[in-house]
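Comment thread on ticket #2218

A.B. wrote:
> Attaching the input chain for the structure job we discussed in standup.
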Amino acid sequence: MTAGVRRSDATRATILAAARERFAADGYERATIRAIAADAKIDPSMVMRYYGNKEKLFAAAAAFELELPDLSTVPRERLGTTLTRHLVDRWERDDTLMALLRVAITNDTAAERMREIFGAQVAPFVAGVTPDPAEVPVRAGLLATQALGLALCRYALKLPPVVAMSRDELVAWIGPAIQHTLTGPPADAAVASEH
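C.D. wrote:
> Ran it. Output below, let me know if you need it in another format.
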């Protein structure tokens, strides 16, 4: 790898880090190329050179892999806790999802990007562990509500009781709900069995 390529990669990484922070702080509409360049300590023309425009920069900054684990060797009754632990670890390692989540609340482009991430990554993952293929869309959607709700409350809203919990406590509380979402009976079956 040449020095020029390394510098180019470092510049791209610096721009993306600045963009994520700026989009998260200001939202998509108020974030500007000029402000992002200032945060990155580079000329705005460099941002344009690497990314073309704000929309393309946002798309690059919002690229996020959930890196969902292979659960094929995990005992079925541990799927929820394993996935919950993975998600918490993943969010705490990289704030890209938090930036995307903050912006998605008020911006249609960001919301669409969030739907793409969860559609492309969560639905296939859920299909691998869900008993009935017809339930995959509902279970994937409900898994997203739990995962994103936890992320929103812990990392964006910073609700004190949720922030104060250790990772093990989060897993103990949220894991069973995610387990049910992945493998439990649907609501109508649960209600029918009560009567």
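A.B. wrote:
> Thanks. Noting for the ticket: The first helix runs from residue 3 to 30.
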